[in-house]
Automatic annotation (TrEMBL):
Its EC number is 2.7.8.26. It is a multi-pass membrane protein. Belongs to the CobS family. This is Adenosylcobinamide-GDP ribazoletransferase. Its cofactor is Mg(2+). The keyword Transcription regulation does not apply. The chain crosses the membrane at residues 35-56, 110-129, 149-175, 196-229, 249-269. It catalyses: alpha-ribazole + adenosylcob(III)inamide-GDP = adenosylcob(III)alamin + GMP + H(+); alpha-ribazole 5'-phosphate + adenosylcob(III)inamide-GDP = adenosylcob(III)alamin 5'-phosphate + GMP + H(+). The keyword Ribosomal protein does not apply. It holds the Pfam family CobS. It is an enzyme of class 2 (transferase).
């Protein structure tokens, strides 16, 4: 149990800026095993973002609450995945060969493609999150319990952050890691492909929130998986596999696909 706790805190240290116990070190073995807790870390990020939304929505306004929840998520993760998405935009936008793409993605400076990509992701996230409260059935008969009123929104956030962090783990199972492994912080995570048996735990964790929703919402997984593996195939075509930045981009795109799919199901299926 103590070992699993250390593995969990390793995942927490890798994906977030949240404080961890002092006994959590930088063990490569623990980091490799920590991917099974990635969806659970997503739950934590969703919880912080959701709580921030509820507080600001109660005392200020919905728009400010959505912006605050996004900022809270960015501060919690240190913009870990957003930075990867921006690097991918720079690399694939400005490079036409594998070597050039990898070289640009390693550059710590942010280019025009990265800026545009980052702005687009944040704008899309804001607009999609703004639509979600409008389709929550519980708001038609609100109670004094704000958590109950927004339970579907909170569940959506938890499911979105969990499933979107599951997608990179599955991509690691079927695609190869590229770039210089000795100079990459993702080397321990990508050094060995996770087995199907190993993926059972994170998959169950990511899908658990759907137990508390209407069964139709499970359909959101289809476009999310399609989008994630379409990106993975695109990365393989150009650079032969994925990098840590590519996994970050997959998480961001998967999260946006999740929100969009939820809105479509709310509007046209439920």
């Amino acid at each position: 149990m103590k070992k699993e706790l250390r593995i969990f805190f390793t995942a927490m240290m890798f994906l977030t800026r949240l404080p961890v116990p002092r006994f959590t070190d930088h063990s490569a073995d623990y980091l490799e095993r920590s991917v099974k807790y990635f969806p659970l870390i997503g739950w934590m990020v969703a919880g912080i973002s959701g709580l921030t939304f509820l507080i600001f929505n109660k005392y200020i306004s919905e728009d400010i609450a959505i912006a605050a929840s996004i900022i809270a998520g960015l501060l919690t993760t240190g913009a870990f995945h957003e930075d990867g998405f921006a690097d991918v935009c720079d690399g694939f936008g400005g490079g036409w060969t594998k070597e050039k793409i990898l070289l640009i993605m390693k550059d710590s400076r942010l280019g025009s493609y990265g800026v545009i990509g980052m702005m687009s992701v944040l704008l899309c996230k804001f607009l999609l999150l703004k639509e979600l409260p409008k389709f929550t059935p519980d708001l038609q008969t609100p109670s004094v319990n704000i958590f109950y009123n927004y339970r579907y929104l909170l569940l959506t956030l938890v499911a979105a952050h969990g499933v979107s962090r599951l997608m990179p783990v599955w991509v690691m199972r079927y695609y190869d890691y590229v770039t210089d492994p000795d100079g990459s912080k993702s080397k321990p995570v990508a050094s060995r492909k996770p087995t199907i048996l190993f993926l059972i735990v994170p998959t169950i964790t990511a899908l658990l929130p759907f137990v508390f929703m209407s069964w139709q919402f499970v359909l959101v997984v289809i476009p999310v998986v399609y989008g994630a593996f379409s990106l993975a195939r695109y990365f393989k075509k150009w650079i032969g596999g994925y990098t840590g930045d590519c996994l970050g981009a997959i998480q961001q795109v998967s999260e946006l696909c999740f929100y969009l799919s939820m809105i479509i199901i709310w509007r046209y299926v439920i």
